[in-house]
Design a protein that fits this description.
Elements: E1 5-7, E2 16-19, H1 22-31, E3 39-43, E4 48-57, E5 62-71, E6 78-84, H2 88-101, E7 105-110, H3 121-135, E8 142-143, E9 147-148, H4 149-155, E10 161-165, E11 180-185, H5 193-201, E12 205-207, H6 216-229
Parallel strand pairs: 1-3, 6-7, 6-11, 7-8, 7-9, 10-11, 10-12
Antiparallel strand pairs: 2-5, 3-4, 4-5
Helix pairs in contact: 2-3, 2-6
Length: 231
C-alpha cells in the first residue's frame, strides 16, 4: 500500500504536527479523500521525515500524531546542474526529471545561443517540490537565480569535477571519487566554439554523452542521472 508523502514547513519537536498549508489540506481531504486514522509521511525537506497518523480535521488545519521519525543524511555526491534556458515546457521537463534523478542544485544559465531568457521561478519551485515528493526525496534541491555563462563558470570553478557536455568530444567517464560535481548543458544548438574555449581556459573537461545528437532536455536528464550514479 502506497503511503502518501508531503513536503512542507513542519515542526517535528512535539508529538503532534499541524498541517496548515491549504494546498496540502485540499489534497488530503478532497483529492485523496484521506480520513481519520490513515497514515501519511511528512517531510521538512531538510532530511527529517515523520510517519504520522491523521487524527483531527478542521476547516483550516489537520492535526496528526507522530508515529516515528526518520532522519536522512545528504547524498555523498553533490551534483550541480547548470542548464541553459530552454523553451518553457522543455526546461520544466528537464528540471523535473533532474530532480527525480537526484540533482542537488539547478542553476539556469544564459549562453550565446540562448533564445528564451525568461523563467517563472515560482512555477519551477513548485515543480521541484512535487518532483521531490513523488520521488521520495528528503532534501529539496535548490533553484538559483539565472547566471550568464562566464559567471557560471566562475561560480562552479571550485568543484572537484567540472564537465561541459558537448557533442563530438571524448565519451564521458565519471570520476567516482568526486563528491562535488558541476555539469553544464547547453541550449538548442549547443555551446559555441568561443564558449568551449572559454570553459577550457577555466580547466573544465569537455565530454560527450555519445554519438547521437540529443535534445537539450534529454541530455540534461541523462547527464544528471549518470553523474549522480557515477556510471
Amino acid at each position: 500500500m502506497k503511503i502518501h508523502r508531503f513536503i512542507g514547513d513542519y515542526d517535528f519537536s512535539k508529538k503532534e504536527v499541524e498541517i496548515i498549508d491549504p494546498k496540502i489540506i485540499k489534497q488530503i481531504k478532497t483529492i485523496l479523500r484521506l480520513g481519520k486514522g490513515e497514515v501519511i509521511t511528512l517531510s521538512d525537506g531538510k532530511g527529517n521525515n515523520a510517519e504520522v497518523t491523521l487524527a483531527s480535521f478542521y476547516t483550516n488545519k489537520i492535526i496528526s500524531i507522530i508515529n516515528k521519525i526518520d532522519k536522512k543524511d545528504k547524498t555523498k555526491r553533490k551534483v550541480s546542474l547548470y542548464l541553459a534556458i530552454l523553451k518553457k515546457e522543455n526546461f520544466e521537463l528537464a528540471v523535473q526529471k533532474a530532480v527525480e534523478a537526484g540533482v542537488s542544485e539547478i542553476i539556469p544559465i544564459i549562453t550565446e545561443r540562448t533564445i528564451k531568457t525568461g523563467l517563472n521561478m515560482e512555477r519551477l519551485r513548485k515543480i521541484i517540490l512535487e518532483a521531490s515528493e513523488q520521488s521520495g526525496r528528503s532534501f529539496i534541491p535548490t533553484l538559483f537565480s539565472v547566471l550568464k555563462f562566464q559567471d557560471a563558470l566562475i561560480t562552479s570553478n571550485n568543484a572537484e569535477e567540472k564537465v561541459i557536455f558537448h557533442l563530438d568530444n571524448d565519451l564521458y567517464t565519471p570520476n567516482k571519487e568526486a563528491k562535488n560535481i558541476s555539469i553544464f548543458i547547453g541550449p538548442e544548438g549547443g555551446f559555441t566554439p568561443k564558449e568551449i574555449d572559454l570553459a577550457k581556459s577555466y580547466k573544465y573537461s569537455i565530454f560527450s554523452l555519445g554519438t547521437l545528437t540529443l535534445r537539450a532536455e534529454t541530455a540534461a536528464i541523462i547527464a544528471t542521472y549518470r553523474v549522480v550514479k557515477g556510471i
